[in-house]
Amino acid sequence: MEKETLMKSPDIYGKIVAHSKLLGFHQSCDTKTGFLLKGLAASKAHGTFLELGTGAGASAAWIVDGMDQESTLISVDIDPALQKIAHTYLGDDKRVTFRCEDAAVFIRNMEETFDFIFADTWPGKFELLDKTLDHLNVGGFYVIHDLLPDMSVPEEYRVKAPKLIHKLRERSDLVITEVDWGTGILLAIKTTE
After folding, report:
1. pLDDT of residue 180
2. Of 44, 63, 103, 163, which one's alpha carbon is 20 to 30 angstroms from that of 114?
3. What is the rounded CA–CA span in Å between residue 140 and residue 46?
4. Are 147 and 186 contacting, i.e. CB atoms less than 8 angstroms apart?
5. Percent helix, strand and coil across the chain, each rounded to 5?
6. Contact, 191 vs 173, CB < 8 A?
């Protein structure tokens, strides 16, 4: 019985995925990635979390499910229609702040630092990577996914992903773990300033 409880996805995750599919959005976080996000979030007591690319809020649902009551999440997306879905299901949670703006603008102007950054859009991943990582605390997690070759993503993305992985591997301030399941996940832990 305990194992079933541990493996249960957040109730709102299923609602968010169903709602987003009605609008034709099929890029929600898969459950394997979700369980990883939840577990990592649970390890950061009183954590500050950043999600770049809210989408419909599926990933945010997992992150919030792992966060303690003193943690906070800022979730950024440029698409108000998609972010409205996330706000519908997560908007009453006082730990969550939604920012509807271009993630590149947000990154250029951010002053705070974070214990956990999930970069699920081009800015923070393929663009402004160094600036994003400058705002990750030592011991903090930087997570990206959608790294395995997949014909459903644009060719430019498939070309950029291996270059991004190589760049992250070469950084001396990060310890990298690559996970070859789901859509392909990379977890980086910042070890020095």
Report:
1. 86
2. 163
3. 13
4. yes
5. 40, 25, 35
6. yes
